Structure formats: structure tokens, C-alpha cells
Amino acid sequence: MGAMRMTTLDRLLPMLPEDAARAARGCAGELREIRLRAGRPVQLVCGGGDLLTDEVVDAARLRRIAAALMDYSVYAREDELSQGFFTLPDGCRVGVCGRLVGDGDRLRLSAIGSICVRIARAVPGCADALVRKMIDGEALRSALILSPPGLGKTTMLRDAARQLSDGGYCVGIADERHEIAACCQGVPSMDVGARSDVIDGCPRSEAVRRLVRSMSPHLIAVDEIGGKEDAEALADAARCGVAILATAHGASLSDIAARDCLEDLLGGGLVRVVVLLGGRPGQIRRIVELDGPKEAADACRSA
User: Fold this and answer.
1) Which residue has the higher pLDDT, 227 or 48?
2) Residue 185 CB: number of other CB atoms within 10 A?
3) Which of 30, 186, 234, 248 could form a disulfide with 46 if both were Cys (CB 3.0 to 4.6 A apart)?
4) Share of the chain above pLDDT 70, in %
5) CATH of 2-118, one of 1.20.120, 3.30.310, 3.30.70, 3.30.450
6) For 153, how many CA atoms within 13 A lie in the half-sphere containing its CB?
7) Cβ(133)–Cβ(289) below 8 Å
8) Domain ranges of the chain
9) How do residues 146-161 score in pLDDT, each as one tens digit?
10) Higher pLDDT residue, 246 or 30?
């Protein structure tokens, strides 16, 4: 998987200022983000911190880089860009900021001011502790991975799905943003396991329902629960006997109470294991096991 992960870097580095490209090559194994802002230095975010390079990226170079990463087809990316990102074939996600203008019932990006390239990477074994908690005899317990942005939720989700899939469970993956499996023409380019089936680029709630209807999964994996509709689709899947593995933004269990979709999943007794990430990316800070709705409510109040 290392060669696939380098694809985005191989395309991007020749377009960067020389000092930024040299620095990025020096920390490629630890590189997590490359942030480009018009008229300002390149920011490289690595495992141990970040670095601002000396040379700046002017607006023209930034536009050229963004266009090249989109294969010079902005029109094909408009749906993603209206949400503030686009995803590359190897699973790297590029966040985009700039000038937004109204275009009918949605916003359209008319000028790019900055981009953030998040490097997708596989970390085999990072979900070992989570997988052990999820397996309960012959059954699977549903789990939620919770952390602030940038701490490895998707990486852990992918590794857990891979381990469970290779361990004998049929796994359905709802990959709306192409980040979990990084499908190319419907075929995963990231290792998600031998028994995994992926619906790519489809809204999460619809993908969950389609997976339940068509693929008879033991487990459905979904990244970044977005709202009530996602939660309802997952609850419906659970009522069909399917285990759930999901991620969401949050720094603590108390954050769950502030988001109705998460509170519904825990309060209904669906989620039995909550993993809290913190510190460095991929680091498990705490694993909480919940026996039912009362324990979930007590855990959220005491967090």
C-alpha cells in the first residue's frame, strides 16, 4: 500500500517550491498534511509537529496545483467542491477554501485561496484493541470511534474493517467521500479485507440501506456520521441484526450529548464500544464498554 500512498506525493511534490518539496521528501513517512495558502509559506504537518517553509506559494501556482490535482476537470468535481473538498484516487482528501458564490440551491467555489492535502495512509494493527472489544463470542458488538479532526479516525476504521473482514465477517463499507477504500472504478485501492463490499460516492444513509438489502453484511462501516438521517439508517440496519462501526467528530463522551444523532445511537443501546482517540494521530486514549442505554447515559454525564 506504500506505493499507492506515494502517488499523490509524486504528483504534488514537483509542483511545490523547491524548499517545500525537499522538506516534504525528508519527512514523507511521517507527513500527514500539506497546506498551501496563496501568498504564504507552505505548511507541512508531520507526526511531531509542523514546519513553515521559506518560499511562498503565489495565487497562480496554487490554482495550477489545484487544477492538476483535479486532472484539469473542475466541472467533474463541482459536487465535492460545493462541500469544501475533493478526494484523490489513492484516498487523499483535499480540503479547499476560497470565495463561494450562490449557484441556484447550492454554493459554488469561484476562487481558491488555500488547500489542505491530507495524506491517506494504512496503519496495519492500529485497530487491534478495538477489534478485540468488538468480537463477543460469535457475535459482533457495534462501535463508535470518536475524536477531533486529524487524529486518525478513518485510518482506524479502515484497519478494523480489514481485520474483521479477513477474520471471517462480511463487511459492507459506505464510503461516501472515497476515503476508506479509495475506490477506482468501484474497486478498492486500499486494503479493506477479503470479505468487504464497498458502495462508493453514495450518500451514507442510502449506501447503508443498499448494503443491508443487497449484500447481507455482518458489519457496516461508515465514516463521519453526519446527522439524523445517517443515524436512522444505522439504527434500521441494527434492527436487521447488522453490527455497526462508525466514526464521528468529538473530543469526549460528553460531546455526544450535544449531537442528537450520536445520542440516539448510544441512548438506544446500539453502540456498545466507544473508542476515544487523543494525543498523537492513531493513539487510543480510552475505550469505554457500554452494557445498555442507562450505562451510555451515565458515561456521557460523567465524562
Assistant:
1) 227
2) 7
3) 30
4) 93
5) 3.30.450
6) 23
7) yes
8) 2-118, 128-302
9) 999 888 999 999 999 9
10) 246
Is it true that 2-118 and 128-302 share their CATH fold? no
Q: Is the pTM of this model over 0.85?
A: no
Query: What is the DSSP pairing of strand 183-184 with strand 187-188?
Result: antiparallel
Which residues lie closer than 8 Å to 100 by C-beta, 6 or more apart?
A: 107, 108, 109, 110
Task: Tell me the sheet residues that pair with 172.
Answer: 197, 220
- Residue 301 predicted with pLDDT over 70: no
Q: Where are the alpha helices (DSSP H) in 240-283?
A: 260-267
**What's the CATH number for 128-302?**
3.40.50.300
Q: Of how many residues is the chain composed? A: 303
* Burial of 7 from C-beta contacts in 10 A (0-12 / 13-18 / 19+): middle
Count other C-beta atoms under 10 Å from residue 226's C-beta: 15
User: CB neighbours of 266 closer than 8 A, spacing ≥ 6?
Assistant: 144, 256, 274, 290, 293, 296, 297, 300
Strand segments (E) across 143-235: 143-147, 171-175, 183-184, 187-188, 196-200, 219-222
